[in-house]
Specification:
Low-confidence stretches: none
Order of helices and strands: HHHEEH
Number of helices: 4
Number of strands: 2
Strand order of the largest sheet: 1-2
């Protein structure tokens, strides 16, 4: 649970960069990649990150642009291009950071109704961050299955070891 706004700002800013890096690595022709029919594809997962960055903060009293489009946790159909989703995600991410400017650290202890439970805002922000990371991880698996290069985020991916002048670890 976040107890200081500055800690959330730093974590969110870094994680948002990682999310954009993953989204930028997905070309439009790969958007329909799914593990199996009936599961979220890359397009739907990317759009879900936009939805979540808009919808979850509304439960904490933040008015993120686009909230009026969210019904039952979902916005309308995703755009056809990844670039449009990146722009929407970046706008929602920026609005989230701007929205918490009106909060103090003490506001992180305030409780809100979230999904039938009562959560402190610091916990709600933690869930938002971890939720994003969870779906970003799903996206990287689908990217691998589609033959796309996954960006290095927390360390080198298999193809990234050469930048360090070493062979990738044996599997």
């Amino acid at each position: 649970m976040f107890r200081r706004l500055d800690d959330f700002r730093k974590a969110w800013t870094e994680e948002a960069k990682h999310t954009v890096a993953v989204m930028e690595a997905i070309p439009d022709p790969a958007l329909a990649t799914a593990i199996t029919p009936g599961h979220r594809d890359l397009q739907r997962l990317a759009w879900h990150l936009v939805e979540s960055a808009i919808e979850m903060p509304t439960h904490m009293g933040l008015a993120i642009p686009g909230a009026e489009l969210v019904k039952g946790g979902f916005i309308g159909p995703p755009p056809a291009s990844m670039q449009a989703m990146i722009q929407a995600y970046s706008a929602a991410s920026d609005a989230l950071l701007k929205g918490i400017e009106s909060w103090s650290d003490a506001d992180l202890e305030r409780e809100d109704e979230m999904y039938g439970e009562i959560w402190k805002r610091g916990y709600g922000l933690q869930v938002l961050l971890v939720h994003q990371t969870h779906h970003r991880g799903q996206m990287t698996v689908l990217m691998r299955q589609a033959g796309l290069l996954v960006p290095s985020i927390y360390g080198p991916v298999k193809e990234g070891w050469s930048a360090y002048g070493v062979e990738p670890p044996k599997v």
